[in-house]
Amino acid sequence: MALNLEAGGRSVRADQVIACTPGLLEGGPDKLGAVRIIGSGGAREARTCVQGARMLLREYPEECLLLGPDDPVLLDGEPLRDSALVVARGEGRTLILSRWPPGATARALGHLERYLTRLVRLDTP
């Protein structure tokens, strides 16, 4: 199932999209409602995607598309409301969209990876 993600003049056909609200950077380990995993794969694949995004941001910060407060993010033509950070995997690449400055984006990706690690541990019997 391919998802069409569009933002900031870029578009990608994604297998998986991870959309985060500003609640991702709030205190506490419970990010329920702040993180949505959309598309194929679960928490394990999402964690792998985010690990790749962190490396990409560290090595090539210009690859992160910084969005303004009014820039829409569309998934299959529908807006992803309240999305402050979106990571997408598809077409052999990773796309990072953020409404935060680079330092906050890097911190948010770290929070997201820790949250997804918790989900993977809960899912492992």
Topology (elements, then pairings):
Layout: E1 3-7, E2 10-14, E3 16-20, E4 35-39, H1 43-59, E5 64-66, E6 73-75, E7 78-79, E8 85-90, E9 93-98, H2 102-123
Parallel strand pairs: 5-9
Antiparallel strand pairs: 1-2, 1-6, 3-4, 3-8, 6-7, 8-9
Helix pairs in contact: 1-2
Strand tally = 9
What is the alpha-carbon Rg in Å?
Answer: 13 Å
What are the low-pLDDT stretches, counting only 5+ consecutive residues below 50? Answer: none
Helix content: 25-40%
**What global shape is seen?**
globular
How many structural domains are formed by the residues? 1
Order of helices and strands: EEEEHEEEEEH
Report on this structure:
This protein has one domain (3-120). Helix content is 31%, strand content 32%. The protein contains two helices and nine strands; from the N terminus they run ββββαβββββα. It has helices at residues 43-59, 102-123; strands at 3-7, 10-14, 16-20, 35-39, 64-66, 73-75, 78-79, 85-90, 93-98. The strands form two sheets. It has a five-stranded mixed sheet with strand order 4-3-8-9-5, with helices on one face. A four-stranded antiparallel sheet has the order 2-1-6-7, with no helix packed on it. Helix 1 (43-59) packs antiparallel against helix 2. 33% of the residues are buried. The model has no long low-confidence stretch (mean pLDDT 89).
